[in-house]
Amino acid sequence: MRTSHAGRSRLVVSILIALAAGASHADEAPDKDPTRLQTVVVTGTRSVNRSQSSSLSPIDIVTAQDLQSSGDTQLGAVLSRLVPSLNFPRAPGNDGSGIVRPAALRGLSPDETLVLVNGKRWHTGALLNLQGALGRGSAPADLNAIPVSAIDHIEVLRDGASAQYGSDAIAGVINIVLKGAATQGSNEASITAGRYSAGDGRQWQGDASIGVPLGGDKGWARLSVVQGHADTTDRGGRDDRDPTSPVYGQKTQRIGEPDIRTHQALLNVQYAVAHNVDFYAFASTSSREGTSPALFRTYNSSRNIPSIYPDGYLPLNDVRSIDSAVVAGLRGTTDGGWRWDISGNYGRSRVSIDPTHTLNVDLGAGSPTRFDAGRLVATQKAVDVDIAKDLSVSWLTNPLTLAFGVEYLYQGYRIAAGEPASYVGTGSQGFPGFQPGDAGYHGRHDVAEYISLENQITEKLSGSLAIRHEDYTDFGKTTSGTLSARYDFTDTFALRGTAATGFRAPSLPQQFYSTTSTNVIGGVPTQIRNFAVNNPVAQALGAEPLKAEKSHNYTLGAVYAPGAWTVSLDIYQITIGNRIVPSENLVGDDVRAYLDNHGFPGIQGGSYFTNALKTRTRGVDLSSGYRFDFGSAGNLQLSAAYSRNHTSILSVAANPPQLAQNGLELVRVGHIAQGYITDGAPRDKIVLGADYGVAGWSLHGGLTRYGQFRVNQDPVSNPGYDQIFPARWLLDLSASYAVAGWSFTAGVDNLTNVYPQKYRAGSDGAVGGTWPYPDYSPFGYSGRYLYTRVAYRW
């Protein structure tokens, strides 16, 4: 663990105090003052006494109570309502990304944000988001694999932190802190149910978290479980493309929320095994299953067999995502004041995508309609040794916190082939199976060492310095550094800043993922290969071994906290070189001829991952809160936050020389993909909140403005159809009443039933009017959601 034992002990104490207060005033409205609920932070620092208000970097704290502020049961979706700099698009399909959804900070790629659980690196997902989705080409950690009922609070570090945590922490860090000790009032069971006002999308979810003491006061164990089900929503438009079609004027394309069945459990344990030595562990399992739609195949399409589907068909992908993790370790403090932590970490993500309600045209009228397309598995094994001590230095007024450690990290990635019927010929429509040539296992090792120094240099000036060196067996070595400082001009006003370098190792899926997919090119569905970068065909087309992304991060901020009012402002710039993206599809008669001449006959075209871009992201984050205490008349907590950022493409890698010599050009990043990177996320976001509590009642209001975003269209088949989607305001309201341990909540998300603007008629994105809304609307397009929740605490 990257945090100290003493710091963790203070965190546990603060949690116990908060829980005890909640237990002794169960009939009172909850206290939403974040400064009272949480003061000690453990993310981005190894100091034992660093608070959120005195942090050298911007940190958002989201409490378990905050996570209950909406009816949404997806962790990423709730966080996007609470953290303005976080985006959680709700893509309807895209080969599984509707089930395994990515979350992104500061407008960057989802895999450029590191996810920790109790300070430990959470494994990345097996699913590679390849289709037209925000974060295209990423394989990030799956936030929704962590049971919400197990979460005490979440710390979102909005700053580069590779020098502290290693790869992926370019945009920031999301550290999920689990519920711990068993105390009076800390156990809870709840059930949430709701549906959309359109009449579909019914959902229910049961949550429970139960803790028990172990060995008297020596330790505790806590089990948290989640069981839930969500039905689909469908906001597809009428298919008016072909008047001769038997389904003319009907809905043929399903877009909206997928159906998801969720089963999750997490066990968290701590036990004192000796004086000042604790054993700790947590183990989790998560299974989520759902169905994602592909594109509708018309009755007269060459990809249909009329004897099977006379009216055409909508291929569906049955997606199952299974995540498991185990972390165990020992931590303690020596008599000399050295804090130490030794831990082991195992994580596994397994994703299967099995096409159903489909066919393989090359198998004729006897084609199956359901296929086993294979499996994707990502694994992680890590061993960490972390040591820290507060040293007395004669020429320093305050102790110097020295921390150092080593980490061994192993990552593996496996592709398992599907059944032959899923990949023979063009393969199963919607998602062709993995072929034996795609299948294989790939792994790599990394050894890292780090050292950090942190000190309250004077009464007003504090600073920290961290350096981390990594040695990966695939791309090589890299070193990252972070320098942070803070100056408190008064007790209420301070400036803070960070300069950091960082990196993101090329993921194993980006290096070795290989499959056939159906992409729409010029309005026509086309079978295209995605090659591993070491594939001879990819190398003939110019592929090279992937290098690590390298970042430079600069942040300057101000904090003002007079009395009950707090406000912070941070501006930042993040420059990323060697940014990894999937290339555009290289297709055409000249490409086929080139590959034929190089000994690769019969290949229609393909793409591969490449270090294509240098980008620069600039932005600003503003947050403010004020608390009114009216005595017996209750209390009111107001909050306001604003985030704005924009990414520019500074340069694009040159055309591979072997292609240039033969008159071919690889488009590293096309017009549509550029839009994903520069304008696919909302340009800005405003989050306003109000919480009023009195005599057992708690009223919550949240108003969110999602700024404009843009969708680019094919400049050849759809020139002039790039579209800017204007900003939208969404209002969420809820009311709760607590009595004798029970709480009853009724609420509505998106009260005014707001939808994003529709695609313009004739746009490729609209697919003939069947797909009226943009894929990556930041708030989806299912409309108003009504819900109730009943909970009991003891």
TrEMBL record:
Localization: Cell outer membrane
Residues in the signal sequence: 1-26
Domain TonB-dependent receptor plug: 53-173
Residues covered by region (Disordered): 229-251
InterPro entries: Beta-barrel_TonB, Beta-barrel_TonB_sf, Plug_dom, Plug_dom_sf, TonB-dep_rcpt-like
Any one annotated GO CC term: cell outer membrane
Basic and acidic residues bias locations: 231-243
Record family assignment: Belongs to the TonB-dependent receptor family.
Protein name: TonB-dependent receptor
